[in-house]
Amino acid sequence: MTKTLILMRHAKSSWNHPGLDDHDRPLNKRGRRSAEVLGNWLRKKGYLPDEVLCSDAVRTKETLGGLRIDPDKVEYLPELYRATANQILRVLNRATGDMVLLIAHNPGIAGFAEGIVEEPPEHPRFLDYPTGATLVVEFDDDRWDRVKWRGGRVLDFVVPRELLQE
Predict the structure, then answer these.
(1) 105 is in an annotated binding site
(2) 23 marked among binding-site residues
(3) HSE of 18, CA atoms in CB hemisphere, 13 A
(4) Is the peptide bond before 107 cis (omega within 30 degrees of 0)?
(5) Is 14 marked as a binding-site residue?
(6) 13 marked among binding-site residues
(7) Rounded distance, CA 152 to CA 140, Å?
(8) At a CB cut-off of 8 Å and minimum separation 6, what does 39 contact?
(9) Is 32 assigned to a binding site?
(10) What angle, rounded to 10 degrees, do the helices at 29-45 and 58-67 form?
């Protein structure tokens, strides 16, 4: 049996409130639209997670809400806010679903994405992992606690700009 990870960076956030704490920044209009098209893409491709591990920041929660998916289990985790790649791996190792969506932030998510795959996708935006970037990775194991660096096979990678142009 395999496990599938959907690794998503939050959609574009707003900078319109200068005094607002970074953790509390919401999505902007483009971010809300990006979350919507990413949700459509996930449904079209059949990438429907049964578990979501999401940073507890406002913009990651709003990204998840904009996807309009209905997973069995959702956890909002403070340890995914400003998480390093190693911290993200530790969180993923505790997952229980078969298809897990993990939503977090740069720079940790970019480092995690690069480190978790056997070979990176041939995409010009993969290494900088822009807002809304979404990677789908499959692991040949039936337990998340055995997932290790360089163990994932890329199934898909997309950035919202590509979906908004369709």
Answers:
(1) no
(2) no
(3) 0
(4) yes
(5) yes
(6) yes
(7) 8
(8) 66, 67, 68, 69
(9) no
(10) 50
Per-residue pLDDT tens over the stretch 105-120: 999 999 999 999 999 9
**Confidence bin at 122 (pLDDT 50/70/90):** very high
15 is in an annotated binding site: yes
Place of tokens 């791996």: 89
pLDDT beyond 80 at 6? yes
Q: Which domains does the chain have, with CATH numbers?
A: 3-118+143-164 (3.40.50.1240)
Global pTM exceeds 0.90: yes
Q: For the beta carbon of residue 108, count every other beta carbon within 10 angstroms.
A: 21
Above 90 in pLDDT, residue 79?
A: yes
Amino acid letter for position 135? L
Q: Is 153 labelled as part of a ligand binding site?
A: no
pLDDT tens profile 21-53: 999 999 999 999 999 999 999 999 999 999 999
Q: Are 75 and 52 in contact (CB under 8 A)?
A: yes
Mean pLDDT, residues 140-164? 96
Q: Is the dihedral of CA 20, 22, 73, 29 positive or negative?
A: positive
Distance CA 64, CA 66 (A): 5
| Polymer length of the chain | 166
Please tell me whether 150 is known to bind a ligand.
Answer: no
- How many C-beta atoms surround the C-beta of residue 116 within 10 A? 24
Collapsed DSSP state (helix, strand, coil) of residue 88? helix
